[in-house]
Amino acid sequence: MIWGVDVASMLLGGVAAGMVLFIVSVGLSVTMGLMGFVNLAHGGFAMLGGYAIVQAMKHWGLGFVPALVFGFVVTALVSVVLERLLYSRLYRANELDQVLLTIGLVFVMIASVTLLLGPENQPIRLPAALQGQIDLGIVRYRTYSVVLIAAGLLIAAALWLVFERTQIGAQIRAAVDNRRMAESLGINIDRLFTITFAAGSGLAALGGGLGAEFLGLDPQYPLKYLVYFLIVVAVGGLGRVTGVFWAALLIGVLDFVLKKYLPQGGTAFIYAFTILLLLWRPQGLFGGAAR
Amino acid sequence: MLNRIIAIATVLAATTTWAHAQEVKVGVNLPYTGIGAEFAQLVDRGMDLYLKLNADKVKPYKITLVKRDVKDPGGANAKIAVQELLTQENVDILAGWIYSPNAIASAPIVTAGKKLAVIMNAGTAHITTMSPYYVRTSFSMWHAGYAMGEAAAKQLNAKTAVVGYTDFPPGKDSLAAFKRSFEAGGGKVVDEIPMGGAGAVPDFTPFFQRAKDRKPDVFFVFVPAGDHAAAVVKTYAALGMREAGIKLIGPGDITQDTKLQAMGPAAVGLITMHHYHADLDNPENKRFVEAWKKEYGATSTPDFMAVGGYDGMAAIVHVVQTLKGKIDADKALEALKGWKFNSPRGPIMIDPVTRDIVMNEYLSEAVMKDGRVFQKTIGKIDAVKDACKEQKIGPCAPK
Amino acid sequence: MISPPPSGPLDRPAAHALAGRHWLRAWEPIPWILALGLFVLFPKHLAFGTELLVTILFALSLDLVLGYAGIVTLGHAAFFGAGAYTVGILAKRGLWTEPITGLILAAAVAAAVGLGSGVVLLRTRGLTLLMLTLCTMALLEEAANLAHDYTGGFDGLDSLPIAPLLGRFEFNPLYPTTQYLYVLAVLFVCFLFVRTLVYSPFGQSLTGIRENILRMRAVGAPVRQRLVLCYTLSAAIAGVAGGIWAQANAYVNLGTLALDRAATVLIILVLGGFGRLYGAFIGAVAYMALSHFLSKVYPTGWQLGLGLLLVVIALFANNGILGLVETCSRALRRRGAGAPAPGASAGQ
User: Fold this and answer.
1) pTM for the whole thing?
2) Chain A to chain C Cβ contacts (< 8 Å)
3) Fewer CB near the last or first residue (10 Å), C or N of chain C?
């Protein structure tokens, strides 16, 4: 059943790519939806996290999963510091000033990493168990892609639990939908934002580390993939985890299929698709009413 | 008394002119920041290492490198950098150029500036025809691509091939070169797959899946050196293409020495054609690699870009010595036409007609040896010229 | 009950300020004097100077849509590239090499692209509009790459044959004196146009749309029409900037359509201060002088200095460098005058 194998391998490849996009972009979507803050340095946190993970594995011999946890924690802490020192001053400011701040921050991140660790790409050595191929019955496929899909689903499930079943999740959802109302109900928005920002950046770090096998890891990372993250956020709808999830999967699979059957001008189709979708539904697939 | 003053004045005048003749300014343009920073560092180190190892060959002259960052392959910054090197810094010789678009954009200024310009990386074939002052010590895409096509047909006995290439001019050059010689040798290219742009590294899985479905004897891949190459090798292994009987071949860009060890066992079995890799077995290369590791770290390694810088500096020093420090561009060109040198890549020569490099091409297979990935030389073609200009194909034809 | 109106319409300071907005201020000739000064005093820096002037023109076009109409776009390089490629393709194929008329053609093509995209995209706002402009530009870039037979693809179109200016002044790649004066003249003309536009009733309605779009709709202003017209005019000027860049460099490639260019010009404008006409000048000078001269001293680390500057300006200045200057001068004036004056400085 060659046709089935073909479809299966395409879905697997596309979904795996989509999962990486999801894990990195979900933090961006929630922070933008929650605070209306345009954080173009989000890719920078993914890069910093990825670097922390790779360095931990290389120099301290940490295993893959402990390194991921390390990367999450370190990046979350760094983001809290930056948020309190820099970001919080510009919450009420013009969004263009926010763009200026975050772009400046990205430049500083890129330059610092280049000066400290050099401009080369940082290769990641996956544990042997995650390399090679795995037999899934219908098809033999790259083990790591399957791992990514599993990781993405796990994170999506965890996020769903947090948003739907915990108080803080409810508070975040409320604040995304109507910040003033949430404030008047006594929810401490500033503290909420710091927590969300930290978690979002930590997730970006996870995405950077998990995706390093496919997307690579070098000082230019934040700017190279920024467009993809923004597309996923815009298509999914600000502040909606389900939106980011489905948008990431959609973009991942679409990209994969187009590259296989129409390698000429593959990226052009993603842009065309995004344009058409945003014209049809400006608030994104799952977004609330247009602000 | 007057005689003594005149004598002193004459000596002073003579020493100052002698001091001027001693210093030669070389204007270097490289992308020290941005996506090309890593390549700039390799060429830069290659140049510096030559000057360090061959200080006695430089005497009694002093070569000063004036370095300018071109930041990106966009052309505009390269033009400004070259223009300022010529008019503000008054350099005697120009050098550098990682990206072909920058070399192409700089050509009119180089011609107007009338200074020798040594290209140390940019590989699009017809660049050397764009200015009479361009001399190239790196390579043309056709050197490796054409030779690989011949080797694939003859030595590897391949009948069918799929070509995957990054969709920008060096990739198209590679495709054209390989296809021409492979089909001349009796093979057939059954599919040509453009694999995304030269910027962000795409996920190669869909492209490779398509190639695998075609079941060719060989899969010729060209991607820019760096992250693309690492991703290519990983995808090849992850899709089990070697087990399916498809050999992965390509120019040495895909087994760039600086990335090779990180690829690990996945790289074993790759067959590449290139003019240089760090495992080449000749005395100059042994000396070169040893000096490199001593200077830049035991885990560091030179690669083909580094040797482009190294040989480029050798060419410059040769010019300086031949012209005794007074650099006139036309005389410099004469000095380089037909110049021979024992480079770490083997014997090289600058073609007197095309001003491009003539050098050996080595067919290598990646194997595991002593716990690291080693490139074993399994074939060699001597004195390869750039076939594009040799056969006057397309834009390489004389204008 | 109704008190008599005050004597004379210009007696109130606010009214006076509003009526006199478009008058020429004493310091306005300064940028032009400085530009001519660069030409005379630093003839070796004219290549950098030409690039700087083209960037100012481009940033000026962005200010029209961003600063005055409030349209945040990351895709303005689409128009720059459209103008550049118009000039490039016509010149390379020998169809049209005259520079001045070439600019008019470039402006026309860019305006067409602006009109077409504006009509479709300007229904949306915020992040959606931002992404739409970005994707449109990226799509154009991909199209240019695919049509490499016409556009030269990644390598671009080189050695464009541009006819001498006014039949006499040649463009010399090594000594760009003609290029510099040519770009300066075009920048001056375009600046006059933008300045007049901004202080005209049309320009004022744009400011109204930016400040309070609902109210403008409520008073019956044709909001969509105005926005699309503004967008088209801005696209035309961006096209002129692109066209003149291609002529001055005798070269065009995909970088003219790249996100890098669009993002840089946005940063430059915000750095200088948007909605203030001269923000484009200040921002371009600050950004490019830093990136050009700092990179000579620290070829590997200048990005750090630039990033820090952006962060500092974002944190402490309210609307870029010009905003900072204005805040400082206002504070100085207040200190000098003692008590704050009533109804002081009306908004610009």
Assistant:
1) 0.86
2) 131
3) N
